[in-house]
Amino acid sequence: MESKPTGNLSIDGIHVDMEHLKKGEVNLGTSIMAALFDGGVILGADSRTTTGAYIANRITDKLTQVHDTIWCCRSGSAADTQAIADIVHYYLQLYNVQNHEPPTTEVAASIFQELCYSNKDQLSAGLIIAGYDARHKGEVYSIPLGGSLHKQRYAIGGSGSTYIYGYCDANWKENMTEGECIEFVKGALAEAVKWDGSSGGVIRMVVLTERGAERKIFFPDEDYKGNGQ
Amino acid sequence: MSLRFIPPATSTPSTLPAPAASALSATSIPDTLRAGGPTSLASTLNSRHPLEARLAQWDDTQEKLKMENLRRMFGVQEVARRGMEMKIAGSDWRPAQLGGPSNFHLDILRGVDERIEWEDVFKGNDNTFEMPDFHIEMERKLKMNW
Fold first, then answer.
1. Residue B75: which region, alpha, beta or left (left: phi > 0; alpha: psi -120 to 50)?
2. Nearest to A103 by CA among A116, A115, A112, A93
3. pTM of the model
4. ipTM, two decimals
């Protein structure tokens, strides 16, 4: 007797469809990235949230703060990523109070990874975590859909990232200055937005250095030029 | 031991009708009227709404996540102590027909003593015939239910 596979199973009834959104969920089909430079780290994201073909929010903020200088970029289901980020935010505050020092980026990434892996059958969340602390300077961690943890010099994620692998490979340099890195992230996200239908809107960035966290925003009608204010 | 914060999609039915559904004088015989009418086991287990299991276990799952975080921070003694305090505070008992337990100390321990929600107004105790009978509860408490 034939029965249609339900839920996350793809049509062959055996493989799990990891991209599947649960009913009614809003999709953060996205371009996100984070990159190290000499003196800190930059996170960048587009600002489009879609429910199918409808753009539910064209100025979404996908860069979420989980501690003073630890931020994450969210892609996948908006609800799932917000729930995870809230739990990590709570836990890092508790860590700070208990241990009288701020948590390192590695601690934050480990909590994210454990949450994503333990609940991997119910979640659809791709995250990039980036943070700056005085001892380890800037660090970038990438957690794709299955819940694995990857420490990298720069990371790209989301549906739009597939179009910019070549661009990033060609333009990435070690030990860039802050200005060069802003141009690198901006250029990469502008290319991703050009090709991916689920990415668009403004380009948001957060620069993490020893000065703290600085938000920047670049508008499409100004061709993403502008000083970021 | 794990950080599962999403309730599983299926659940074993947590409420079994056994106590209320046994006939008074012959406790091994099921009493259909007391059990709320003729229902089959199949109807209670099948065709549930997909969200029902998730919602029913939501509070428990969040509580478990919180206890797991506390265990990692402060050790298992913190979790054991909280469980012990809840058990001691839950020892006030009053029959349901007389209003049920006041849960005064339990509310303080759970941190909801200064909160009012709909469940405090609409308690679900307006129909005394749907709640356990006074005599049945007293007999159960005094272990007189042969």
1. left
2. A93
3. 0.82
4. 0.75
Asked whether the beta carbons of residue A118 and residue B9 sit closer than 8 angstroms, the reply is: no
DSSP three-state, residue B23: coil
Decide if pLDDT at A24 tops 70. Answer: no
Task: Decide: A37 and A181 in contact? Cβ < 8 Å.
Answer: yes
The domain locations on chain A are: 28-218
Output the CA angle B75-B81-B86, nearest 5 degrees. Answer: 140
Helix (H, G, I), strand (E, B), or coil: what is residue B86? Answer: helix
Q: Kindly list the domain boundaries of chain B, sorted by start residue.
A: 1-7+35-74, 77-115+136-146
Asked if B9 and A114 come within 8 Å (Cβ–Cβ), the reply is no
Q: Could you name the CATH architecture of A28-218?
A: 4-Layer Sandwich (3.60)
pLDDT, one tens digit per residue, over B67-84 is 999 999 899 999 999 999
- In total, chain A counts a number of residues equal to 229
Nearest Cα of chain B lies from the Cα of A98 at a distance, in angstroms, of: 8
Closest to A190 in 3D by CA, of A27, A29, A31? A31
Q: CA A66, CA A119: separation in Å to the nearest integer? A: 20
